[in-house]
Amino acid sequence: MKTVYTHSLHRLLDPQLFINLENVSYRIARLIKEGKRIAIYGDYDADGITSTALLVNFLRDIGVRVKYYIPSRFFEGYGLNKNAIKKISEVADALIVVDSGTNAHSELLFAKQLGIEVFVLDHHEPVNSEWKTDGIHILNPKLYTDINPFFKHLASVGISFYILIMLRRILNLEIKLKPYLDIVAIGTVADVVPLSLINRIFVKKGIEEINKKRRPGIKALLEHISTSSVSSFEIGFNIAPRLNAAGRLDDAKKAVKLLITQDERVGRVISSELEFLNKKRQKLTELRI
Ligand SMILES: [Mn+2]
């Protein structure tokens, strides 16, 4: 079994080919070495939720002081806002924005002016092709025409996983990355990105991890889904809608908490709440038809 897994993860494209990945990872690695406080700024859909949870889990697992922020769909809307940035700047030295940020130049500059180091891990199309970085560390494969197209197909959670691969290399960590692929598979399937080479490997290996039910929140969520073994169908039609229901009707932070908790009881409580929210969402959808 071990050779199969090694072989398959080795089929991932060489991180060196991912333009700017190494630069951005070196900066993050340096912050980690200096013991800086890092905040992740996510989004309320499944890709934003999973990207946030992936980075929070990994950074926490290697001993980094990490916090996260998810804007409210109702009160703040999509992407960065200056009020949130102001609050974050009081408790963090660095901000990593996931699944948004590419076109939020003035908000990113605002964060920088407040003295925090700013990173963007995103896959949204740049609106302005004359993108100026102004000292902001941005990793978005869609900024480059000469990058391997497989990188352009990554969801934000896949881009974030490449950061993990690079951080592991730079910081010489012993930590295994395969157990994090459950979260990567969920975000990748939920974001409906093309399932080409890298994404196919993420989904295939990630589904194996989901079925091991090692993460308390995922284990609890699966108890509400009547199937013995999860495939990408269950991710798309059962798991992703439950995560998205949190952001659509209540608070997406619940979905992040589900994916980062190490407590079985917390996992059960949140998964029941998500179950309720998802049923409510289904009823609302029926009423609209
Ligand atoms: Mn996305």
Question: How would you sum up this structure, described in words?
Answer:
With 289 residues, the chain is α/β, with parallel strands linked by helices. The protein has a single domain (2-284), classed as inorganic pyrophosphatase (n-terminal core) (Alpha-Beta Complex), CATH 3.90.1640. Helix content is 55%, strand content 7%. It contains 13 helices and five strands. The chain has helices spanning 2-10, 21-33, 46-61, 82-89, 105-113, 149-152, 156-170, 181-190, 197-212, 216-222, 232-249, 253-260, 264-288; strands at residues 38-41, 66-69, 94-98, 117-121, 137-139. β3, α5 (105-113) and β4 (117-121) form a beta-alpha-beta unit. α2 packs across α7. The longest helix has 25 residues, at 264-288. The radius of gyration is 18 Å and the shape is globular. The model is unreliable at 1-7 (pLDDT under 50). The structure holds manganese (II) ion. Manganese (II) ion is lined by residues 47, 99, 123, 155-156, 191.
Q: Which structural traits does this protein have?
A:
289 residues, alpha/beta, inorganic pyrophosphatase (n-terminal core), 5-stranded parallel β-sheet, 13 helices, binds manganese (II) ion
Topology:
Layout: H1 2-10, H2 21-33, E1 38-41, H3 46-61, E2 66-69, H4 82-89, E3 94-98, H5 105-113, E4 117-121, E5 137-139, H6 149-152, H7 156-170, H8 181-190, H9 197-212, H10 216-222, H11 232-249, H12 253-260, H13 264-288
The protein binds manganese (II) ion (MN).
Manganese (II) ion binds at residues 47, 99, 123, 155-156, 191.
